[in-house]
Amino acid sequence: MLPFPTLEEIKSAHVRIQSFIHHTPIMKSAAINEMAGCEIFFKCENFQKVGAFKARGAANAVAKLSEAQKKNGVATHSSGNHAAALARAATVAGIKSYIVMPSSAPEIKKKAVKSYGGEIIECEPNLKARETTLQDVVDRTGATFIPPYDFFDVVEGQATCSLEMWDSGIEFDTIMAPVGGGGLLGGTALTSKYISPRTKIIAGEPEGADDAYRSFKAQQLIPMEKPNTIADGLLTSLGLLNFQIIMEYVDDIHTVSDKEIIASMRLIYERMKIVIEPSCAVPLAALLKNKEQFQGQKVGIILSGGNVDLGKLPF
What we know:
The protein has 14 helices and 10 strands.
C-alpha cells in the first residue's frame, strides 16, 4: 500500500497554498433542491484560479519543491487543466515549467498554458508519445516531473477543497465528486472520512469512461481503453494511489450517460447562471439518476471546473 496524506498534512497543505488559490464559494439552488428532493451545496471550483480545482494540487506540489529542484523547474504532460495549473504555479513561484501537450490539444488550452508562462513541447496524440517526450524534456532540462493526479503532493493539495467544505460548518450526509484520474475524489474521501466517518463519499463517472466504476466493483485496477465521453476532463485512467484510497474510503460510484451529463450541465447553466464544463455536471447527473438514495439529505457536490469552449456548448 502507498502512503496516504494524513489530516494534519492536508491542513498544512491548505496553509501552504493560501496565497496561490481562491477560497471558493458554496452555492445553492432552490429549484434544483426541489427537483432532487434534497439540499445540495455546490462547492464552486469553477471559480478557482485557472478555472479548476487542479490549481490546488499543482500549487502544493510546486511549494514543496526543494531549492535545488526549483532551479531546474517542473515538467508534466497534460492537455487539460493540470497543464495550466502547473504553468501558473511555477510562474508564481518564479520557476520554469515545461508542458508536453498532444498536437491535438484544443488551441484554447494551449493559449492558457502560454498565458501562464509555460513552455509547450508538442507531441503525437498518444500516451506513449507523451511519456517519451516528457522523459526527453526531463533528461534535457533536469526539471522535476509533477504528475497530474497519481502523486502524493497533488492528492494532498486536492484534499484541501473538501477541507474548506467542512470548515463551512455544514454537516454533510454525502459528498460527491467526479472521478477521472482520481486525485480530487481521493483527496475528498480522505479529508471527509477523517473528519466525519459517517458521511458517504460517492463518485459520478461517465459510462464511456467507466474504469473507476469497473475497478471499484472488481476490487482490482482495470485501465480504460478508448474512453469516449463529452466529459473530456474525465478521460484519464484511474491512478494507483487514488485507486487504493477509493477502495478504502469511497462508498460507491455511479455511472451516467452523456445525455444525462448534458441535461445536468444545462440545468446548472439555466438555474444557477454559472459556467461549468461537462465533467463538472457528472455528480449532479448521478444524484438525479439515483435521487431516491439522497432524499432529505445534505449533499455536497464539487463543481470541478469551468473551462469550456463557449462556442461549442452541447445544448
